[in-house]
Design brief:
With 266 residues, the protein is an alpha+beta fold. The chain has a domain of 157 residues: PCu(A)C copper chaperone (Immunoglobulin-like, Sandwich). It has five helices and ten strands, in the order αββαβββββαβββαα. The strands form two sheets. Strands 1, 2, 3, 5, 7 and 8 form a six-stranded mixed β-sheet that branches. Strand 1 and strand 2 form a beta hairpin. The radius of gyration is 37 Å and the shape is flat.
């Protein structure tokens, strides 16, 4: 093997250095891109579903949008008497082969829940209760009034359109009705009430269930605590504005020069 000249040796060394530098840069880029999110909390890590209700997962069952709907008829009486209140939720059985059954819903601390309809949860099927926020039916035109003022005939028509108990428009869902009674003062708009769901296979799970605030809250003057004082203040303000306007005109007239008297004197 012929000996290399010093110039050839230098060129060979420079080539090796270039290859090593290129490899080092490539490795740095790969590791830098792969580790750019290491130790960081992604923006989607703590996002919640855009629904009103609570949620929970037990075994292969997913409970979603669990909430107590605002009474559509006689809301004031329902809150005074502690019921009846309707519970809305969707329970999905995500198992591909194992069926389950909703055995009961209990209220820790007092109150009772009544389930009307089939409680079976076949594999890959769902169990839906209530009508959450009118998502299952189209609201009639002009229905922007408070849900507490909806006539009972209109409520019955909406329920008929949505399907009776056990007869859901969606073939993968079974419709049921869950009613709460004897709740005392625990159910109030904006509060949460714990409900315990018991399933035959999945077991028990407790969900903090929020209470719906209603569809539209109308303003009622009778709800003001100091209605008489508010009306008296408004009347006084109108009276003061009128008196100030009149006194201003009187002062303006008194400041004008008396040209008539001046002419007589001349």
């Amino acid at each position: 093997m012929a000996e290399q000249s010093p110039a050839q040796v230098a060129r060979s060394q420079r080539g090796i250095v270039r290859v090593a530098a290129a490899a080092a840069i490539g490795s740095a880029l790969v590791f830098g891109v792969a580790a750019c999110g290491a130790g960081q909390i992604s923006q989607t890590a703590n996002q919640e579903a855009a629904v009103n209700g609570g949620s929970a997962t037990v075994g292969q069952l997913a409970l979603r949008d669990v909430h107590i709907t605002y009474p559509r008829v006689n809301a004031d009486d329902a809150f005074v008497n502690g019921g009846p209140f309707e519970v809305a939720f969707l329970i999905s059985n995500n198992s591909a082969y194992q069926d389950d059954t909703l055995q009961s819903i209990t209220v820790p601390g007092g109150g009772s829940a009544t389930i009307s309809g089939s409680r079976a949860l076949p594999a890959t099927k769902s169990l839906r209760a209530g009508q959450p926020s009118l998502l299952l039916t189209d609201a009639p035109e002009g229905s922007a009034s408070s849900s507490a003022e909806v006539p009972s005939s209109q409520v019955a028509a909406q329920e008929s359109q949505a399907g009776s108990v056990g007869n859901s428009p969606d073939p993968t869902e079974t419709r049921i009705t869950v009613t709460l009674t004897g709740m005392g003062t625990k159910v109030r708009p904006g509060l949460t009430v714990p409900l315990e769901f018991t399933f035959q296979r999945a077991g028990k799970v407790t969900v903090n269930v929020p209470v719906d605030a209603g569809y539209v809250n109308q303003r009622r003057d009778s709800q003001f605590l100091n209605r008489e004082n508010a009306e008296a203040n408004e009347q006084n303000e109108r009276t003061n504005e009128g008196s100030e306007g009149g006194s201003g005109q009187d002062n303006y007239g008194s400041n004008l020069p008396n040209t008539g008297s001046g002419g007589t004197a001349g």
